[in-house]
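task queued by scheduler; priority normal; single chain, no ligands, no partner chains; default sampling; output format set to structure tokens
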Amino acid sequence: MEAKPLFHQVCSSDFISQSWIDFTFEMNLEALWPMDLRYTLSAMWQIIAGLCRSATNFINDALTEFASEPLISYAAFTEAYLNVQIQAELEDAWQSAIDRFGRHLNIIQTIAQIDGFMTGVSTNFVGTSAITSADIPLVVYLWQTGYLLPGTNEICTCNNDLSCQMPAGVYLFNRTEALSFYNLNWIIANVTFPGIMFDCLPFLSTFASSLACFYNQSCINTILIVYSKTINTTVLNEATNTRFPPTMILKEIVEQLFVEKIFNTTSFNAYYEKCAPISCTYVYSRRFYWIYVVTTLLGLVGGLNIGLRLFVPYFIELIMILKRKLLNRNTEPQIKNCKRITVCETNTSFSLFRYSNACQIDKNFGEDQNKIN
């Protein structure tokens, strides 16, 4: 048995290469808004590349564990049932890997959000420094980032709300116009990109985004224009057969370990030789036809007729023999008890004596005689 996973094409694309990650990394962040695409795009692809590697390790470990487990059965499987059984157990191993990966991922997300890590690109906190005195030459102040989302009057802060999701775009504004509060009702993006989202933490931005832009060559060309650089890269192939549509968010793809399908190659001949059953039985089921039923009944009647002709005479003769023996036994004479009594009279008394030739004398009668004598 050989199982081979097929991963989403993004895990083998140019976008997870180090050259693309380096290309999208922007050094001069002081002239950019935090919600600018150039702030987080490089971090987004670093996260996707790391998730692809982790997913590959998890699924390969699960398949290795699955291959090491023996297949035990009380009878040899048919080829069709063997394939069904292997596929079912393979999907169980796949689901176990998904569950383990999900638990690890949830722990990382929870720690990152609860501990309030400050990102290196200042998407959730903004740091400023000031020189106060010679003894304390540098003081760093942290300001929580706040966003007034479009069409609302409520300020979303990454410190209190943990997530302030919005579309990512390119903002050609001077970074010094705001320190830590951004009113997106009047700060309008010059260019937006389909499916790419911004959030307080890079992994939140990644999970909320889709890969729709990276299936579109025009969208990639716009990104290249924004960076004012060029790089050879190939967009994702939309014609590829996939169970993950381009508009699906990355969180849902990651939860499935980027796996499109697991191909299972099972050799029934190898399985049968390995099991080497001593004997095999099979049942052939079919529907009876009326001709078959009639001929079967006629055959039974004919066989019963011949059997009775052969067996009945001997049976009757046996009954007659037993009957004669029973009659002879009832007519034979049977003597159960034979007694003879002799009475001798005298002048004043009489005696009872046992007769020596008696067959059997009652014991009580003899005892009474002795008493009289």
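post-processing summary
- Residues 2-275 form one domain.
- Residues 290-331 form the longest helix (42 residues).
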